[in-house]
Amino acid sequence: MNDKKFQRRLEGLIEDRHSGASELARLGLEVAAQCAQSAGAQKTIELRHYLAECAKALAAARPSMSILKNLMEEWKESLEVLPDDVEEARVKAAETALNLAEQSTRASFEAAALTSALVGNNKTIITHSFSSTVLEVFHLLKNRGVQAIVPESRPLCEGADLAERLSQWDIPATYITDAQVGLFAAHADIAIVGADTLLADGSAINKAGTLLLAMAAHAEEVPFYVCCESCKLWPQKEPPALEEMSPAELGTSPWPGVSVSNIYFDVTPAHLITGWCTERGAPDPEIGDRE
Amino acid sequence: MNDKKFQRRLEGLIEDRHSGASELARLGLEVAAQCAQSAGAQKTIELRHYLAECAKALAAARPSMSILKNLMEEWKESLEVLPDDVEEARVKAAETALNLAEQSTRASFEAAALTSALVGNNKTIITHSFSSTVLEVFHLLKNRGVQAIVPESRPLCEGADLAERLSQWDIPATYITDAQVGLFAAHADIAIVGADTLLADGSAINKAGTLLLAMAAHAEEVPFYVCCESCKLWPQKEPPALEEMSPAELGTSPWPGVSVSNIYFDVTPAHLITGWCTERGAPDPEIGDRE
C-alpha cells in the first residue's frame, strides 16, 4: 500500500458516517494488515517504524471511538516483538492485525448473544442509531417474537438502514423521528443501544440522541442497556472529544449569524444506564448491575 | 362564502403544518367571520344554525389545539344572543369573531411581554418548534443580548423558519438536530416553548420533542417555561387526542412490516415545567409557581 492509497483509506475511515465504531476499528485493522503486507521496508526496524506511524494515524482517525484507539494501540505494541526477518515480520504483523479484527467480531457477537438471552421472548426493543452489535441482537431474536422501535437518527438517518434490515428479517418495527422518542419509550420493554466508547465511570458515548432516549426510558422505568465489546472502554481519565461533523449534513440553507451544529455523539451518564452488556457478561461483572 | 369555499378553508386549517395553534385559531375566526358575512340565510335563526355548524366543523379541525376549540365555543355561544334582524346579526357575528381573534393576539403579545421581562438581558434561550408567542419573546429581546438554541423540529423542520427569522433580526442562534437537545440544554439559561394546549393538571401539549427538551432542561437545572395565551387551557377532564400526520412527512421509502409513525404532539408533565407564562402572569397565578 503506497502512501497515497493509505491516505485514501484513512480519509475513508474519517468520512465514514454509516459504519459503527466496531466496524470502523476492524476496517482500520484491515488497512493496517495491508500496510504490513505492502510496506517497502527492507529491515524489521524500518517496518516497525513505518507501521507504528500508520497505527498512530489510524488510531486518531475517529477520536470519539475508543475501540479504534485501543485496537491500534494493541497492534502497535505487538510490533515490538516482530521477528528479525523482515518478510516474517511482515506476515506476523498482518496476521496480528487480522486476528485482532476477528477477536473483535467474536466479542461483539458474544455481547449480542448475552444481550439476546437477557431480552428473552416477545419483547419490544427501542434503540437509537445503527449498531452492528444491536443488529446482531435483533438477528438472534428474529424468530422469538421481537419487535422494534427505531428512531431515524438525524442527520443522516442511519435508523432507516436498521429499519430496512429488520424489514428483510420480518421483524415488525415502528420507525419514528428522534423527537418522538419521548412518546414511544413507554411502548418498549427494554432499550438497547450500542456504544462508541465506554467510560470508566460507567457512562457511555454513543450517537447524539442516545442521552435523550436514556432519559425517556428512565422516566418510563424501561431498563436501558448498552451492548458492545468490552474493548470499547476508554483507557484514559480524560474523556475523548465528541466529534463534530459537517453542518451541511443537516441540509439547511445557511443563515447569517446562525451557526449550525452537528455534534455526533453524546454521553449518557451511568445513573441512566441499567447495565453494560459485553462479552464478559450482562450486566458487566466488573461494573456490577447498576439497576 | 359558499360550502365549497368553506370546505377549502377548513381543509387548509387541517393541512396547515407551519402555523401554530394561536395562528390557526385566529385563521379559524377569520373564516367564521367570512361565513357570517356571506351566509345565504334569510332569518337570524337560520344564520345561527348555519354558523353553529361552521363553528363545530372549525373547532374539530385540529383536535390537539384547545385554543381553536375554546374560541369557536365562545363564538358559538355568542350566536345565541344575535339581533333578530338578519343583516344586523350577520354584522354582529362577524364582528364578534374578529374581536375574539384580536383578543387572542393581544393575550399572546402580553404573555410574550411578561415572558421577556422574566428572561431579562443577555440570556440564551433554548426552544422547540415554532411558536408565534416565543417568536414575539425573541423580538422583544432582540436588542437585549438574547441568543437562541433552535432544534430543527422534525419532520417538517419549522425550527428552520425560526432560525431564519432570528437571523433577520440579528439574534445569534445555534441550529441543531432534535437529537442534540441533550447536548445543548446545558448551554441555555432558560428553556421557553409555546403550547398547543394547557391541561388542568399543569401539563402542556406541544410539538413532539418538547417532552425531551423538558427532560434535558430538568437534568441540567435549566428552568423550563411554557409561554402562551391562557385560553389554551383544555376545558375537559379527558385530554385531547394527539394528532398523527402523514408518515410521508418523514420522507422515507416504505419497508414491508415497518410502520412509520408521525405523532405531532407530546405531553410534558407538570413536574418538568417551572411555570406557565400567560397574559395573566408569569408564572400563572392560578397555577402557582411550581419551581
Topology:
The structure is a homodimer of 291-residue chains.
Chain A: H1 3-15, H2 21-38, H3 44-59, H4 66-78, H5 86-119, E1 124-126, H6 132-140, E2 147-151, H7 159-168, E3 173-176, H8 181-184, E4 190-193, E5 197-198, E6 204-207, H9 210-219, E7 224-227, E8 258-260, E9 265-268, E10 275-277
Parallel strand pairs in A: 1-2, 1-4, 2-3, 4-7, 7-10
Antiparallel strand pairs in A: 5-6, 6-9
Helix pairs in contact in A: 1-2, 2-3, 2-4, 2-5, 3-4, 4-5, 5-6
Characterize the structure shown.
The first copy, chain A, has 291 residues and is an alpha/beta fold. Chain A folds into two domains: 3-107, Four Helix Bundle (Hemerythrin (Met), subunit A), CATH 1.20.120; 114-277, Translation initiation factor eif-2b, domain 2 (Rossmann fold), CATH 3.40.50. Chain A has nine helices and ten strands. In chain A, the strands form two sheets. In chain A, strands 3-2-1-4-7-10 form a six-stranded parallel beta sheet, sandwiched between helices. In chain A, helix 1 (3-15) packs antiparallel against helix 2 (21-38), helix 3 (44-59) packs antiparallel against helix 4 (66-78) and helix 4 runs antiparallel to helix 5. The longest helix of chain A has 34 residues, at 86-119. The first copy, chain A, is globular and about 60 Å long. The interface between A and B is large, with 49 and 49 residues. Strand 8 (258-260) of chain A pairs parallel with strand 3 of chain B, so a sheet runs across the interface.
